[in-house]
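Thread: quick sanity check before group meeting

JM: Hey all, I'm pulling together slides for Thursday and realized we never actually wrote out the predicted structure for the chain we discussed last week. Dropping the sequence here so it's in one place. If anyone has concerns about the input, flag it before I start.
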Amino acid sequence: MKIIYCTLIIITLSFLSCDKSDFKQEFSRDPKVNFESMWTNVYNKYSFFELKNIDWLAVKNKYAAQIDTVKTEVGLFDVLASTLNELQDGHVNIFAPFDFSRSWSWYLNYPQNFNKYILERNYLGTNYRVTGALTNQIINGVGYIRYSSFENGVSGSDLDFVLKRFADLPGIIIDVRDNGGGSPLNAFTIASRFTTETTHVYSSSLKNGPGQHEFSPSEKVYLSPYKGINYTKKVVILTNRLCYSATNLFVAIMSNLPNATIIGDTTGGGGGIPVNAELPNGWTYRFSATVTTLPNGQNIETGIAPTLKVDLSPADEAAGIDTILETAINFIKNSK
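JM (edit): ok, ran it. Output follows.
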């Protein structure tokens, strides 16, 4: 049976509606009560313990002693945040009136692989077009699209304009480096323009029980071609470690298309849809509760590897050259 992404959203919303116990807890500021509530809910419904080899009971034992010494709200926040950060997941956060937790520093261990100043000064020139959320230009005979955030909607007319502009070119580059994500629906909107066949692009399941293997049946998700202007020549997607969440999903979808090539670094991951819950003290938190796998079985939580691994050369960067972009241009112009 063919399904689209909105089906998975409906499944997730259903999961949330069945999870109202998290919002009916008796109010309490007690650190132990809040810690136990959060730990138990995550234990029952977080989707990547096995993938990441995380012993959640050991995590509980590690931070329970610290909870015993908590005297302030800030102290409670810090312990709860540290507990959640053990999940190594950018879709996991706790939100208090004075702060929100984040565990995004992992990308600092990898090359940036994107320099917007080089792009603006040495490649885009002064006559580039900004078509809705799509910055677009013809660079050395190749179409180039810069899409900086999946939070920004992409209309059919925007894509029509850009694809018509690039219709006679040998290929298109879609640069999503440093794109931290946004709406998955935008990923489908764009990807649907680069295929003429309905394609199984991934499968998803929902964590629905406390056991490590208690998930809903996996459901296949398909990409359907747009009924209008499509582009079936070569398309290259530029990636780095800051391609996260919906961007990671977009790259995963495009990796299934025969005319698509990924150039750059492995994406940052973020393959689980997060669900929200509330602590007894009124703070909220979220965590991943689904699993998304490619047709070959690969879990996309840890990122999508590029077809061609290329880093931005320090020597090139010093000379004002974008190594990854240049590789993509050469690939489109020289490969059969």
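AS: nice. Residues 31-45 form the longest helix (15 residues). Residues 1-23 have pLDDT under 50 and may be disordered.
JM: adding both to the slides.
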